[in-house]
Predict the structure.
Amino acid sequence: MSRLTLSTSTGFSRRTFVVLSLAAGVALGALGSAQAAPKTSLSLGMSVEPSGLDPTAAAPVAIGQVTWQNIFEGLTTIDKDGKVQPQLAESWVISPDGLNYTFKLRQGVTFHNGEVFDSAVAKFSIDRARASDSVNPQKRYFASVDSVETPDAATLVVKLKSLTGNFLYWLGWPSSVMVAPKSAADNKTNPIGTGPFKFVSWAKGSQVELAKNPDYWDKAGTAKLEKVTFRFIADAQAQAAALKSGDLDAFPEFAAPELMASFEGDSKLTTVIGNTELKVVAGMNNAKKPFDDKRVRQALMMAVDRQALIDGAWSGFGTAIGSHYTPNDRGFVDLTKTYPYDPEKARKLLAEAGFASGLSFTIKAPQMAYAQRSSQMLQAMFADVGVTLNIETTEFPAKWVADVFKGGNYDMTIVAHAEPMDIDIYARDPYYFNYKNPAFNEVLKKVDATADASEQAKLYGEAQKILAEDVPALYLFVMPKLGVWNKNLKGLWENEPIPSNVLAQVEWSQ
Amino acid sequence: MPETGVSSFAFPESLKGQDMVALIVRRIAGLVVTLLIVSALIFLVMDLLPGDPASVMLGTSATPETLAALQKQMGLDQPLLVRYGIWLGQALRGDFGTSYTYSVPVAGLIAERLAVTVPLALLAVFLSVSLALPLGVISAGKRNSGLDYIVGVVSQLFIAVPGFWVGLLLILLFSVSLGWMPAGGFPGWSAGFWISLKALLLPAIALALPQAGVLTRVTRTSVLEVMSEDYVRTARSKGLSERTALWLHAVPNAMVPVVTILGLQFTFLIAGAVLVENVFNLPGLGRLAYQALSQRDVVVMQNVILFFAGLVIVMNFLVDMLYLFIDPRLRAGAR
């Protein structure tokens, strides 16, 4: 700033200007180190660049990780423990039959472009997400909405066709955020929300810049940082170099577990290992022989030493799971003991199913490191029980989606399922597991039928148990959240109950 | 300077203006036809690739209904030929389409990336030439000396070591340990010329070294060949010193193969720098192409590949033209 003033207000020659500005820089530097005022900017790294900045228009989690809770907010939100909290809806009343939700909306909220948030805007946002030409990636969660009414500017009534126990939770998702009618169409490139940060610029292929929203509706929740820069760095070595050189202040989801040890002893940085919602599961084609036989699937599960797999594939980071659920999720039950590692029993069970002389099939593994390395570990473990696993690398996402996900043309595959609380995928039909279990579907229906949290937790426990017992997919581990950031940085989430980088409360301690 | 035998770089009498124009027109017509064929091929190949951009965008939760809506929005519900026709028609009017992933016009996207890639490539070529030419010529002039041997080993080493690995070492030394340079990334030209140039310096070195290795070898071989030509011997027998004969006679005439390699290298630096761009996290054209491929951003792919194809053709054309200036014998042939 001082340089700019000097150059415009005086007629010095270029050289004088450079010398002066250098001197000013040195002086400022000396001053800075003496006073050490806390920094107010943050440079944060992400592996994947978002494809557009509208979380209501595309699925990639990177979109939400930049925009959710920073630029955009929802009627409800999800806190760092994965619990639903009110946000733009102050409170709500659910009718006794569970079908009518009456929201009391917060007053005095404006979008970054000055548009006022009221019930008409909320109705616009919900109707946009459920419209026939909607491209909302989670449109299914609005399927049960029958009508949206606006009795007055501060009241929104949503009527449902069928019971949807998780409705308030889905409303907290990135894909359910509130958007302004005038700016919604341009949110992909110029996102306008109600959040504590405003969008400033996007240098494609490089970085997104946000600045504090000084007019944020919640004075207590106003952003503590003035400026945030999201930088997109795909290469793990480049990520590590940027952190160590101080170019980056934080990498909440560092990409390479094998490089984590290189941060040990770094005086500036700290490492924080948490849980994500990414469940690494080796899905099987339950409609295809021999995977239509439960005993084969159970035997394969028992052939897997989960801890050894985590050690080999992901440097020992990650939590073993026994079902399609993470420790972040409400009602989590540890089911890794349902079919623990037991090669002897696995061989017996395979023999019982008619595969005493062995079995051979192919895993379609995406090119990502976790999938490739886990597949190699599985290959070795299966070999122990007489099963030959061929690994076929399948480009993710495009070819995987076409072949496995939509085509259902596979024996086994392995991917990290990113969506939080997505245990209901086993009840979807069609879905690539081709798993059909009416008893499981029944439990999930009961979840929808209640909005009571403890009742839901109990039911989710039942659902987890059915999957652990049936093994439609091999449940391996939850991807760790490998956080690396400056020691003086406070307020970043340790776990990630929903893919996000919630930054309003992040600040420098010195 | 006819008495020294150095070829004059002005147009010779033998190549008339109209011949030159005809030659250029022929080449441009060829260029247009090639681009048309390439564009059709790209369309076909992209269509045959498994996976469609709409399902990549919508992920695993999308309903078939949502997918259909997005495909319609992207125009993917149209048959291949119709899509090609629409694209071609728009391209002829200067509208190259809108990226699926970024939702911005592709032309601007490519221009943004070129603002990184072209300066990077130019800087790398500059570094590579200023290192390789003197080394190659000196090495040829003092062939079989200790110096020649050292240059030979060093240039072999440059060729053998991959650029991205050199990049990693440079980052470790200059960014992580010494803290003199940014560890990658590009601030954008708006942030200041020198800051941006600084960001490009390490990647340019990483790119330049392997190129310099090749170029040194080619220069040395080419100069040596020319040195054994009769006219160099004649020049020597007329009393010119070895050094004068080398720099005035041999070097200019040894430039044809060097320029050929340079042309190839420049194209490679624009199109093939993706690994180095990755290590240094530079928003260059190579990374755009890679990203677009994995996202099945067909619109971006088409235009980037077409751009590459066009670039190769144009570079070849320019190199051919350069030959005409360097080598008088080719000028007679151009008629």
User: Anything to note?
Assistant: Chain B touches chain A through 51 residues (CB under 8 Å). Residues 94 and 107 of chain B are 9 Å apart (CA to CA). Confidence is low (pLDDT under 50) at residues 1-13 of chain B.
